[in-house]
Amino acid sequence: MALKIEIIEPGLDSAVIDLENRVDQHRRVTIGRPLGEKYPHHIRLSKATGMVSAFQFTFEIRGEDDDKELWVRDGGQRGQLWKPSTNGTTFNSELLASDRWTLLRVNDVLRIGKGRNAELTGRIVLGTLINERDDLET
């Protein structure tokens, strides 16, 4: 089973990303605003503003083949330390924890910020999709 995420940014077409092609040796990939340097395991949000941390949230793939699971945690790892995002990440209607991983299911929603005024919504999509967009800024 492929693990993919659909990212919906205001004013842009949605973008579908195959996470398995973007993970590091720990099977993690971080989402956030563009960084000054290139990070191969970092997905940059095209319309990110100061509200979005460079390491907003991190996905981790666990399991193999048909038993894969996608987990998420607020913030990201910098060196040996885990750093929470500045403005938080909302998971469905709850604040996503930065001190533990949370299992994602199909149609769970992540929002950047703490509430309804979050500027970006991401919807988790598991499986094969049609009409995938490959031009997301990476």
What keyword list fits this structure?
single chain; 138 residues; mainly beta; six-stranded antiparallel beta sheet; 13 strands
Structure write-up:
The chain has 138 residues and is mainly β. The chain is built from no helices and 13 strands.
> Which strand order spans the largest sheet, edge to edge or round the barrel?
2-1-13-12-9-10
Per DSSP, what share of the residues sits in E-state strands of 2 or more residues? 35-45%
Please report the number of helical segments: 0
The number of E-state strands comes to 13
Major pleated sheet: 6 strands, antiparallel
Coarse shape: globular
What is the N-to-C order of secondary-structure elements (H for helix, E for strand)?
EEEEEEEEEEEEE
Q: Show unreliable segments.
A: 116-138
Q: What would the average pLDDT be, to the nearest integer? A: 76
Rg from Cα: 14 Å
- Share of helix among residues? under 10%
In terms of structural class, how would the helical and strand content be classed? Answer: mainly beta
Terminal CA distance = 23 Å
How would you summarize the topology of this molecule?
Layout lengths: L2 E6 L6 E4 L9 E5 L9 E3 L12 E6 L6 E6 L1 E3 L2 E3 L5 E3 L2 E2 L6 E3 L4 E4 L8 E6 L12
Parallel strand pairs: 3-4
Antiparallel strand pairs: 1-2, 1-13, 3-5, 5-6, 6-11, 7-8, 9-10, 9-12, 12-13
